[in-house]
Amino acid sequence: MSEAIPGRLAPSPVDQRLPLLQLLLVGFQHVLLMYGGAVAVPLIVGQAAGLSREEIAFLINADLLVAGIATLVQSLGLGPIGIRMPVMMGASFAAVGSMVVMAGMPGVGINGIFGATIAAGLFGMLIAPFMSRIVRFFPPLVTGTVITSIGMSLFPVAINWAGGGSEAGSHYGAPEFLILSSVVLLTILLISRFMTGLWVNISVLLGLGLGYLLAACFGMVDLGGMDSRPWFDVVTPLHFGVPEFHLAPVLAMCLVVVIIFVESTGMFLALGKVTDTEISPQRLRRGLLCDAGASFFAGFFNTFTHSSFAQNIGLVQMTGVRSRYVTATAGVLLIGFSLVPKVAFLVASIPPAVLGGAGIAMFGMVASSGIRILQEADIGDRRNQLLIAVSIGMGMVPVVRPDFFANLPHWLEPITHSGIAMTSIWAVALNLLFNMCGQDRQHLCGSHSH
């Protein structure tokens, strides 16, 4: 790590430079954690658009390339773009519902989705400076509520993985899946309890590695099709042809970008708390500009809207490694994987049950981080308790019953299908009602609650 120079302040935790081995190991942990999500979006959209297996494989590699470049820019910065914090970027789930609908629209198809992604990225870059001013509406009461909701919204993902994932079918919850996920979780817990230093920092990687070996012994690692994948392949822009621009898809994707900005704001503020870093409006603007710029760039490189990944904040919290150079290293690894399809295929072969054991620990850490932040707010106030209860309750609606809002217009799906967006909107609105504009409060409308 870098040392403090006499007469100068010690470097911020996010600016610390770690030994190369630690950078690679912790960076690889970040890649393993977000890889499933990064692969899932192109898989779902590719299948909805009726693409062949080879075309879907190309979509996945394209997503890895853009995710790697966006992660590098977000972590290290490029001029006025990039939050310069340990952030992992990838294809956003907020857009999946809208893109599946677009894939089935006559005359739209995959090129219409890419066109909508480019237009939405440009729209995002135009509104990012204005969106960055909303940081004042996210005091600890709101931030803690949103972060707790992020963790709780991710729990079903971890639990689904632990039971064997959606591909387990009738074997879901089989003993071998439960044993695998339990071994991974137990390994992480024991290392965190009895080891120190680097071992604790890579506890998730060690748990995943042991789980992978055990899964291979159970015959649960499927490497079928790996031989047909090339060793080296370069992602070319406009692989599927010229992007097409249609009004309805463009408007729908612009709404998605606004939702991504709301989610990212909550995540950046969460990361600020985890890393003891102030998220100023200027810093937030740089982060949102990277989200939007990545989406604009992604449309030309055969992939979709990008945003920061919430689950990786849990890894930062759990390992205590807050250096942005770790995620920059992970970005380089993602770019490398995009060039070597066989390696990407190998990482994708990690059974969901193995990821589930790690997910339970890390996603829980996100929720516990939110609860810790809520302690900074006046949660003895009954109205603030009501704000937390209703906001988290509304955020759980799409998690508990994804079809609850099925009869509402499709263009609302980016909001109604996102627990994070639902919690954010309700928490901000209720904080405005209870704490910022209340006539019975002894401070002016626009100030924060104590």
TrEMBL record:
Lineage: superkingdom: Bacteria
Keywords: Cell membrane, Membrane, Transmembrane, Transmembrane helix, Transport
InterPro entries in alphabetical order: NCS2, UacT-like, Xan_ur_permease
Keyword Membrane: yes
4Fe-4S found in the keyword field: no
Location of this chain's protein in the cell: Cell membrane
Pfam families recorded: Xan_ur_permease (PF00860)
Entry's transmembrane regions: 20-44, 56-73, 85-104, 110-130, 137-159, 171-191, 198-221, 247-271, 325-347, 353-374, 386-402, 414-434
UniProt topology in membrane: Multi-pass membrane protein
Family to which the UniProt record says this protein belongs: Belongs to the nucleobase:cation symporter-2 (NCS2) (TC 2.A.40) family.
Protein name according to UniProt: Purine permease
